[in-house]
Amino acid sequence: MENSQHSQLSEEDAIALLNAWSFLEISKVEPTNQGTVNTTFFVETKAVKYVLKLYNDSITTAQIEYEHSLLAYLQLCNLSFVVPTPIPTSAGETLITIKQDNSMLRVALLPFIAGNSSDRQNIAHTYAISQTLGELHHALAGFDSSGKMAQLPAWGDLNHIHPLVTPLEVPKLLKLTLMQQHRLVKTLTEVMEAAPNLYKTLPIQTTHADYLSPNVMLLENRVMGVLDFEFATSDLRLMDYVAALDHFTRFSGEAPSLEFVKAFSTGYAKHVCLSQLELEALTLVWRLQQASCIVYWTGWLIEGKVTHQSVINAVARMLLLEDWFTENTAMLSTIIAQRK
Fold it and tell me: What is the per-residue pLDDT for 250?
């Protein structure tokens, strides 16, 4: 994953690019003012609304093509929600590339998906988004089952998830207290030693890898669409599960809410039941997922994308979870294993 650089695109540029979709009768183009990674514009016609997406320089063309192949596959899966499958140009291409100021811009046109981001503290939303994740995982298991098409490393591969970071150097890079450094080194060492066996024994498949509140669109308590598959890769199914579990059951730096854990696990199990090996490895993979985030965000800190304090807060949140596991692992496993 390369150093991120944002290309610029004016409204006039966007309108000119839309000539590639000559069949559209465009009435309005305006920036969305959304997204932290890519530049996007709303494109309105008399009947339909689209999103014009300019991909960030840090995303390789191979990864974009992988994403587009994945979205085309999901469109054929008869899902209960929609995904932003790119609209082919008049020439039949889903990605157009143009040269601007000695750089290459990659642009795609996507359908607009109506809805609102999920409310993480609404338990009905938690149930709905976890049920959708189960449905999505069930469908994704049929795409690139060998993992040979994937362009990004698995999130459990801490040595390769960010090119600027060596995992065991993170505690010193962050200038943590000696106690925090000791604890973080211990966690990083333990999960890196455990990771090879986890990847040998647990189910691996294509995963979304960014299943967070802004990427799940709802109307009332129903999921209408899932967005942003650009980080999708072949990984532990359980890694995707615990990343979403962490996001949708922990609020304001707190420990997981067991009530929300139950809602999440019950919804997910409508489509996929975790294996016994996954249940046994759940807290270990959750720790690995947290460690991977710290390593990745440290890379972002070096690149100037996040503040030092935000990463420090993430470390404190991870250590709080480690303490919580000490007393609650058995209860957590029981709740998730119930599946009802």
Answer: 95
> pLDDT value at position 340?
59
In 3D space, the residue among 187, 191, 235 whose CA is nearest the CA of residue 211 turns out to be: 235
| Pair 152, 235: CB distance under 8 Å | no
Q: State the fold for domain 117-338.
A: Aminoglycoside 3'-phosphotransferase; Chain: A, domain 2 (3.90.1200)
Length of the chain equals 340
Q: What Rg value do the Cα atoms of the chain yield, rounded?
A: 21
Residues 6 or more apart whose Cβ sits within 8 Å of residue 48: 111, 112
Averaged pLDDT in 10-residue chunks for the chain of 340 residues: 49 86 90 69 92 88 96 97 96 90 86 93 96 98 96 96 96 95 97 98 98 95 95 97 97 89 96 96 98 97 95 96 94 84
pTM: 0.92
Q: Show me where the domains of the chain are located.
A: 11-112, 117-338
| Helix 237-249 and helix 258-268, axial crossing angle in degrees, nearest 10 | 140
Q: How far apart are CA 165 and CA 311, in angstroms?
A: 14
Cα 325 to Cα 92: distance, rounded to the nearest angstrom: 52
Q: Could you tell me where the DSSP H helices lie in 7-118?
A: 11-17, 61-75
Judge contact between 241 and 268, C-beta under 8 A: yes
- Tokens 């932003």 correspond to 84
The CATH fold of domain 11-112: Phosphorylase Kinase; domain 1 (3.30.200)
Question: In which residue are the tokens 């109307």 written?
Answer: 219
Q: What angle do CA 74, 76, 80 make, to 5 degrees?
A: 70
Residue 180: its H or E element: helix 178-201
State residue 103's pLDDT score: 75
d(C-alpha 331, C-alpha 76), whole Å: 39
Measured between alpha carbons, how far is 73 from 67 in angstroms, rounded to an integer?
Answer: 10
Contact 106, 97 (CB under 8 A): yes
State residue 32's pLDDT score.
Answer: 83
**Location of structure tokens 């991870």:** 318
- Please name every residue paired with 54 in a beta bridge, in sequence order, or none if there are none: 39, 107
